[in-house]
# Entry
Amino acid sequence: MTLAREIRRKSFHVLAGMTIPVLYYLFLAWQHISGKPYTYLAKWILAAATAAILAVDLIRLRHQFFKIIFIDFFGPLLRRHEISALTGATYLMLSSTICVLIYRSDVAIAAIAFMVIGDAFAAIAGRSFGKPVLYGKSLEGTMACLAGCLLIGSAVVAVPGSGLRLLPMALGAVAASAAELAPLQLDDNITIPILSGLVMNLAYNI
# Structure
């Protein structure tokens, strides 16, 4: 995939992916203002959207007609392996749902944002000037991932109502970057938010 195509792919990834933590934060804010359980509604909406996207992806993989239509619309945004496997967007939806269900709300928001921003920074920096050292990953990409995670994580720490502190956030950012570099069999869209969220949840009161 060329750098220009990677930038287009990651721009879409950021715009679409960041709607999840942003909307979840808005639901939290409305809950604090009204006292009504809007976060439960947000979780149900996210779970339903995830189920729908997973169903579409599975249908696309099983039926050639739908696969052709899907590729016509989203082909330029897909990596080669995603043509015959679940897309990164589906994995991101799955991991986002897991995060909002098992982690503190501010931790879930940060973990999902780490995936969206950190992975985008890593991909663009890695392709621009990185030298692959481990399974196609580069140290330059990993450092860019860490920088992106610290940047967006600081924003999550600063927003009103967030109980997440700098040290747990920074530890989560390091965990996200390590997950991005590690040669794990699972998709980055799963490992980065789940592992970073786990670290932040465990370190929340440090």
About this structure: The CA atoms of residues 47 and 97 lie 6 Å apart.
